[in-house]
Amino acid sequence: xxxxxxxxxxxxxxxxxxxxxxxxxxxxxxxxxxxxxxxxxxxxxxxxxxxxxxxxxxxxxxxxxxxxxxxxxxxxxxxxxxxxxxxxxxxxxxxxxxxxxxxxxxxxxxxxxxxxxxxxxxxxxxxxxxxxxxxxxxxxxxxxxxxxxxxxxxxxxxxxxxxxxxxxxxxxxxxxxxxxxxxxxxxxxxxxxxxxxxxxxxxxxxxxxxxxxxxxxxxxxxxxxxxxxxxxxxxxxxxxxxxxxxxxxxxxxxxxxxxxxxxxxxxxxxxxxxxxxxxxxxxxxxxxxxxxxxxxxxxxxxxxxxxxxxxxxxxxxxxxxxxxxxxxxxxxxxxxxxxxxxxxxxxxxxxxxxxxxxxxxxxxxxxxxxx
Length: 371
Hints:
iron-sulfur, transferase, pyridoxal phosphate, Cysteine_dSase, aminotransferase, 2 domains
């Protein structure tokens, strides 16, 4: 498997923690009996561990059942909390589909509009252009830490500084970055995805002190995650993140070298191909290329039959195999798109074998299509 974006295999340590917590933390942590108190201790411990790994305080961390729900809720609640200041939501053109949808929903609910900031050929925003589009009357600005489809990292610190001067909160999607690279403080609100770092499906929202949020959903004891979260899942997510952070430097070096191999060999050995994304300032484990005269579904199927699981289309909507809105925004080739998102323990031999097989696979697909 060479594409684990958002759904990496569960780490062994996380699996062990999950199984143990199923026995020890099964109860409702809001209950006052012994089993409930034990579950509360486990949940508090998970939140503290996540906060430490994310550079936050435990009271700044909220847990949500999925990353998509976390993204939706964060955009909606920050926009609603700022409704007296403005109603427009600003997003980059290369945000994941869930954020484009959330921005449209939140802006419409407040009577505002979505302002979209374009990117360069590597998929990166210009901080000055981003600040100019935001102005001082937007409800919230949204920017990914790095693009999970092409790997390009964004100038988050520069944009955040401009947003502080403008008085507009910056919401940063760190879903593709956490556990793979150091994210720093990354804005005023961060939304992370445990499934991407080898934990179970779980969304993590960090809201820095001073950011106003107001939910637009019914009142619940758990204000930011109605109904609460599954305690064993939270504990497994925290254990997985601790391990990912501890192994991050070694995993970075291992996968970055293999991505370099893919980038160079694909460009040299496959005719009419475009390798996209920043070659240096990028995530260590993501690489995307597009092949002219090749259908995305056909090449994914052909590579799957050869034993390689890869992605195509937008990373966030790959099941539809629609042309990637990210690549379209970059102005690069969208046809025959192939995406690799390497797991932390990927075998070098598998990546080299992929590069050996790819040229023939592309040639076969082109021949079948009469290209």
